[in-house]
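Journal club prep, notes for RB
We'll compare a predicted complex against what the paper describes. Inputs for the C2E case:
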Amino acid sequence: RHVPEDITLLLDAMQPLKLRGYQPWPTFCQAVGALMTNPLLPLDGKGVMVALRPVPGIRAEQALTLCRPVRMGDIVTVGDGRLVLFLSFCRINDLDTALNHIFPLPIGDIFSNRKVWFEDSQIAAEIVQIRDMNPEKWGNPLKGPGDISAVVNAQHDSHAWRRVPQPITLLDASDGGTA
Ligand code: C2E
Ligand code: C2E
C-alpha cells in the first residue's frame, strides 16, 4: 500500500503556496506546474497567471524591482523581456485589485502588454510552453543600483507600496521672489 507516499506527494505539491516573490524561471515553472496537478486545490480556482511586458524604455528586470507580492503564494519570475506572475487563489475579476496591491504605479504606466491565463488547463498548457525556454532568455534580478523605487518616489513597507511625498518650494526668495 502506497497511500502515505501519495499523501506526501500531494502535500509536497502544496509547497509552492509557501513561496513568495521572485523565483528563478525553472522554480517558477515547476511550482505552478505542481499546483495545477494538485487535486487538493479547487478546480479552476487555484489562481491567475499573468505575463506583463514593460513599456519601451523599462527593462523587465527594472519592472521586477517594482513588483512586491504581499500575499504568500504570489510568485513572479522574469525572462524573455517580461514578468510572469502567479497570484494564488486570485479570481480573474480581481486581477486588477491584486496588481494594484503589488505595484506602486498604475499597471498601464509600467506595462504595455498583458496576457492572462486563469483556468487550470490554460495555465498548465502555458507552463509546458514556457518551461523549456532557452536558459539564455532567463532574466536576472538586478541588485542595488538597478532599483528604480527612487524614480517613482515610492517605498515598500513590507505590507504595501507607499508614496513618499517630497516638499518642493514654489517661490525661492534667493531668486528675487519673482517667477
Ligand atoms: P498573506 O495571505 O500572506 O498576506 C500578507 C499580507 O498581504 C496581508 O497582511 C495584507 O497586507 C496583504 N494581502 C494579502 N491578500 C490581500 C487581499 O486580498 N486584500 C488586501 N487588501 N490585502 C491583502 P495581513 O492583513 O496582516 O494578513 C496576514 C495574514 O493573515 C495573511 O497572510 C493571511 O495568512 C491571513 N489573513 C488575513 N486576512 C485574511 C483573510 O481575509 N482571508 C484569509 N484566507 N487569510 C487572511
Ligand atoms: P479574497 O481573497 O476573497 O479577499 C476578499 C477580501 O478579503 C479582500 O478584498 C480583503 O478586503 C480581505 N482580505 C483577504 N485576505 C486578506 C489579508 O490577508 N489581509 C487583509 N487585510 N485583508 C484580506 P480586496 O482587498 O478588495 O481583494 C479582492 C480580491 O482580490 C481578493 O479576494 C483576491 O481574489 C484578490 N487579491 C487582492 N489582493 C491580492 C493579492 O495581493 N494577491 C492575490 N493573489 N490576490 C489578491
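Talking point for the session: The beta strands are 21-22, 47-54, 75-79, 82-88, 111-117, 154-156, 161-163.
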